[in-house]
Amino acid sequence: MNPATELTESLIAPCGMNCALCMAYQREKKSCPGCNVNSETKSKSCASCRIKNCEELKATHSNFCFSCSKFPCLRLRQLDKRYVTKYGMSMLVNLGRIRDEGMTELIRSETEKWVCRHCGTFLSVHKEFCLRCGNSNSYVPPI
Ligand code: SF4
Ligand code: SF4
Ligand SMILES: [Zn+2]
To answer: What is the distance in A from the centroid of ligand 2 to the CA of 136?
Structure first.
């Protein structure tokens, strides 16, 4: 798939993950097309994701966890804690932004935060350097 230059709504997963920032999306071989696409190349862990396949999620009108009566459930909070701690991004912040400010604002803020200042492609949360140009982006604005 390679690093994206443009973020689209379809790359935002129901849990709030921005799949454009995922190593599995950005890698060249057997790249994952993102949570919202069903494909054989999707990683096993994401194909069987308990959030994506959650029965409560299927009952929501938005297909985002913020519409669920159990939001934020323990599973989502644990995922969020891991990503905040390890990768400096928060699914819960993303979901709150979509709910309160709209998808357009999330896409704007994600682009501002995660686009490589050197080559203009999206960085990966899983890597400290840009996979396209190899430069590090030392300044990452707060979540
Ligand atoms: S592996 Fe999971 S988080 Fe990464 S792009 Fe695929 S669905 Fe999204
Ligand atoms: S917040 Fe609701 S829809 Fe999302 S994983 Fe938890 S129970 Fe499922
Ligand atoms: Zn770059």
So the answer is: 35
Ligand 3 centroid to 88 CA: how many Å?
18
Q: Which ligand is nearest to the CA of 137?
A: 3
Q: Could you read off the pLDDT of 77-112 as tens digits, one per residue?
A: 999 999 999 999 999 999 999 999 999 999 999 999
Q: What is the pTM of this model?
A: 0.92
Nearest-atom index, ligand 2, CA of 73? 6
What string of DSSP letters covers the chain?
Answer: ----SS--GGGB-TTS-BGGG-HHHH-STT----TTS--TTS-HHHHT-TTTT-HHHHT-SSSSGGGSTTPSPHHHHHHHHHHHHHHS--HHHHHHHHHHH-HHHHHHHHHHHHB-TTT-SBP-TT-SB-TTT--B-------
Q: Whose CA is nearest to atom 4 of ligand 2?
A: 65
**Is 70 a pocket residue for ligand 2 (Cβ < 6 Å)?**
yes
